[in-house]
Amino acid sequence: MDGGGEEVFTDGEGQMLPYSARKRGGWATFPFIAGALIGSSIAASGWANNLIVYMIEKFHVRSIDATQTFNIVAASTSLLPMVAAILADSFLGCFSIVWISSLISILGIILIALTAMLDPLWPQPCQHGSTSCPTPSKVQFCILYSGIALAAVGVAGTRFTIAAIGANQFDNSKDQRVFFNWFAISLYTSMVLGATVIVYIEENVSWVFGYWLCVAVNVIGLVVFLSGKRYYRHIKPQGSPFLSLAHVVVATIVKRKVPLSSRAEDYYHKEDGPKEKPVSLPSKSFRFLNHAAAMEAEEDSKVNSWRLCSVQQVEDFKNLLRIFPLLSSGVLMCTTLPVISTLTILQTLTVDRHLGPDMKVPAGSMIVFILTSTAINLTLIDWFLFPLWKKITLRSPMPLHRIGLGHLFNMTGMAVASLVESRRLKLAQTHSVLDHPGSVVPMFVLWLVPQLVLGQVTLYYQEFPQPLRSTAAAMISVVVGFAYYLSTTVIDLVRRVTTWLPDDINNGRLGNVYSMFAMMQMLNFFYFLFCAKCYKYHSVEGGNKNSDDESSKS
Fold first, then answer.
1. Which of 140, 222, 339, 387 makes an SS bond possible with 136, Cβ 3.0 to 4.6 Å?
2. Can you say whether the dihedral through the CA atoms of 294, 298, 303, 304 is positive or negative?
3. Could you give the CA distance from residue 147 to residue 106 in angstroms, rounded to a whole number?
4. In angstroms, rounded to a whole number, what is the distance separating the alpha carbons of residues 140 and 150?
């Protein structure tokens, strides 16, 4: 996750290490990094996946309001990793970001646990048979939301930074690939454990015990991570690659009146010194950005990065502009994720969740079907579907094909969700459940699984410029974060102009909401196809053809 250039091995105070100490890193560090990942992931999955149910049952929050709160929390935990990545790359380093974020997360979960444990911090329970419940006080809400906010910030700070510090421990790409495979396995396993074991304890044993268990595993993970400090390879912050993008914007504005030359030697081709033998002209696309790399006579000996950028920096910025339409279609595609994951919980609370006389599926555990189906679907796609594609077409599937498949999955998932909700409402009407809030609709909970299985998302990595790929995962997280905010806005608009989403979904038209999102996904799919066609067009554009071709390999 370093900002590029040569690796600098330092101790915690930033001093150069002797040669013998530079052998730190390698697989000896994996148990410590995996321990931190497992602890933080189990804790996050345990408190977050049951947050909607906790707010409804313990704090008497209206069901749709609870889902909206969860979406805002999820959006924040998706957007903030970008901030953590920039802080790690530019100032603090990955190690400091991980332990600081873990402490913040632990403090947040402690506050949530206290709201469940101390009577003054949560409202009185509802009276039996009453349709109205005591409203939490401002102090109670303040403590609850403060705990949620701190826990969310902590999750955001550790989510991708742990992956970055792990990748920094290896010198070759093969070891890094193996690391990321084990990282993904550890992450998914931990999230499943949190969403099953801890969520079950919270609903069937005690909210207090479940939340303090989250605190305990998070603390253990942090202790394990800190125990491996002397074995880690500490890479000194080199500056965020996103800072170079800001350089391009500023330099373009400052030098907007500098005439553009048709000679390659009049453009700056090296980032860390005076010009060397030029490679090629900047590409003709987004030609106005070429001003940032245009050299003036006085810049031969001294380079100000805010006034002069290399041709490569300019081309990297152009690559991001080319992929921006695809990213915008990705935001719309990802709006199905919060809709499916949160509204399915509300459906689950109304149906028969028994798997036997003594086993009841917690509503917060439904996320497990998304996690497991994602792992299974990706395996089937990579091992069977795409090899079959290659065998039939004699060409490997491109990343844009993968993204398009994600669009189709999401659209189908929304359509299936609408059909399932229609069946649920029909059963509720048939058995006269509509007039009895809290009654169970005689529909088995596993009817809700297909919509979760089909709601998959496939995004972008290979499309990012090479210097930005270390932060590409965080950028994708930003796309998901904006999608959560967008879905929250759309749901709020639906509540204002329709009666589809009342507090009791048995009296609403949730199926119409799913159908609306299915239509949105269909329109977005056509928009994606248009963007994909335009993106491919740039790959054969004139100008710096090699640069453009390289940036649009897909």
1. 140
2. negative
3. 9
4. 16
Alpha-carbon distance 379 to 181, whole Å?
12
Nearest to 98 by CA among 47, 29, 52: 29
* Cβ atoms within 10 Å of 390's Cβ, excluding its own: 12
Q: What is the spatial distance between Cα 414 and Cα 517, in angstroms, rounded to a whole number?
A: 7
pLDDT tens digits, residue range 450-475?
888 776 554 444 445 444 444 555 56
Same fold, 23-126+134-238 and 316-536: yes
Q: What is the amino acid identity at position 49?
A: N
CATH for the stretch 23-126+134-238: 1.20.1250.20
SS (H, E, C) 3-55: CCCCCCEECCCCCECCHHHHHCCCHHHHHHHHHHHHHHHHHHHHHHCCHHHHH
The domain defined by 316-536 carries CATH number 1.20.1250.20: yes
Kindly state the tokens that stand for 172. Answer: 């070759």
pTM above 0.85, yes or no: no
Write the pLDDT tens digit of every residue in 373-385. Answer: 777 777 777 788 7
Calculate Rg over the CA atoms of the chain: 26
Q: Would you kindly state where each structural domain of the chain is located, as residue ranges?
A: 23-126+134-238, 240-269+285-296+304-309, 316-536
